[in-house]
Amino acid sequence: MKFNIKKYGAGFTLLVLMFTVSSCKKYLDEKDNSNFVKTNYFKSASQARTFVNGIYVQLHLFQNGDAYGEAPFITLELFAGHATSLGQSVNNNNVIHQRTDAVNPGFEDVWKNSYNAIANANLALQRIPGVPMDDAAKKSLMGEAYFLRAFFYYHLVRLYGDVPLITEPVTLDSPDLYPERTATAKVYDQIISDLQAAEASGLPETDQTGHVSLGAVRTLLASVYLTTAGYPLQKTANYALAAAEAQKVLPDYTLFTDYAFLHDNAHKNTGELIFQGQYLAGVADNAITQLTVPFNLPVGAYGDHLGAMIPTNQFVASYEAGDLRAQEKQFYFSSYNGVDFGEHCLYKFFHVESATGNGICDENWTFFRLPEAQLIYAEASNEVNGPTDEAYAQVNAIRARAKLAPLAGLNKDQFREAIWKERYHELAYEDKAYFDIQRTHMIYDVVHNTFGDATSTPNEQGVTMKAQYYLWPIPQREIDTNNKLKQNAGW
Prior knowledge:
Elements: H1 45-57, H2 72-80, E1 83-84, H3 90-96, H4 105-127, H5 135-160, H6 184-199, H7 214-229, H8 238-249, E2 273-277, H9 288-292, E3 310-311, H10 313-317, E4 332-336, E5 339-346, H11 352-355, E6 365-369, H12 370-385, H13 389-401, H14 412-426, H15 433-440, E7 442-445, E8 450-453, H16 476-481
Antiparallel strand pairs: 1-3, 2-6, 4-5, 7-8
C-alpha cells in the first residue's frame, strides 16, 4: 500500500549533534542545510534562532505514522475507548482491546522523539546565553526553549509516569548516559519551573507564526496545574493555580464563528488557536485527513484512505439534541460527494484544500485552543468556589456556539460533570480524553450519559480499562538497553 506521509525530524541522539533544518516558513526564518556539531555552532543570533526553530519540528511526532495508521495521536484516542480503527493494524486493535505490550512501536516512537526534542532544548538552554545577540531577543528565545522542554516532559510524565529527568546535554562520560527514572512529582516540579521561566521571558501575548506565545505558556501551565490537582499527585491546592493561569488567557483569544475554521489553511494560528504544530505542503506534509477518512472509499484526491480512527456511533449519539457539533459537516460527516460511508468520520480534521486539490495535506495540528482554556478555568474554579458566574460564562460561550441552552442552577458536583462532558464533546479526538481519564480515574459512559469508575465501567465497545492502562509501558528496547529502567506495573 502506498502511503503518502513524510517524517520530518530535527532531532539528534543524546550524544550526536547532526541537525538539518527544513525551511517551513511558519516557524523557520532561514534555511541551513549544513550539518554541525556544538563546537562550531551557536556563533550568531541567526544560528540560535534556527536551532530553536528545529525543536518545533519534533512536534510532528504526534502525526508521524505508517501505512496502518499507527500514529501517536491515534493511539492516544484508542486508549480513551471512543474510536475504532482499521482492522489491518494489529497494534491499533491490540490497544482497543487492551492486549498491547511494551514492544508496540508507538510507545518507543513517542519516548525516543520526545527525548530527542528535550536534548535539543537542553543544548539550546546551555549555549544560547553565550551567543552575542540582543538581550531581549535572547531572553525570549530561551523562553521558547523552556516551553518546548516542558511540553515534551509533560507528555512523557503523563504517559510513562516516573521518567528520567535530564536537563543538561549528555556526553559519553555523563552520569545521565544510562539514567534512572525520576519521581513523577520531581518531573512536574521541573515542568512548572520551566514554564514559569518561559512566562517571565518577555514572549508576546499571542503569536500568529507558530512560535510560542504567553498564551501557549499559560495554557500549558494551567493544564499542568489541573493535572497535578488530580491523580496521581492530588495536589488539590493547584486547582486555584490552574484557574488563575487559564484566566489570563481568556481575553486574548476569540471563538471562531465557523467550525470549519478549525481545519482550514486560512485560519491557521489565529482566532481561538493558541498553539499548533505547523505544516506546509511540500516541506512538511500531514497525513491526518488520509488517516481519518473512511477506509478504501473515494473521499477526496488522496492516494490512501486508511480509516485508522473512526468515532463510535455511540459517542456521536451522545451529544445533546440540537448540538451543532454533531450535525453533518461540523465535527463529523457520514457522506461526501454522493459517497455514503455507513459510519461517522471526523470532519473536524477534513482538509478541504487538499481533498479538492492535489491530495497533499498541510493542515496544522492543534495542541491548545481557547475552549480548553475556558473549560480548565471553569473546572478549576468550580473546585475552589463552586459554580460562579464567570465559570458559567466560559462554558456557556462554548455551548452558545453549539446552539445549546446555557447551563444554570447546578451544584458543584453537577457542574463538574457538565464540564467533563463538555470537554469530551468540544475537544473530541484532540488527544484530551485519555489524559482526563488518567487525572480523574473516571470515564465517560456514553451509553448511559454519565461518568463511571475507569476500571469498572465498560466503554461502548464492551472493553473495561485495566488499571495498568493508566500509564503506557516503558518501551522494551529502552529497558533492554538500560538496566536501570524498571517496567511499569502490569506490563
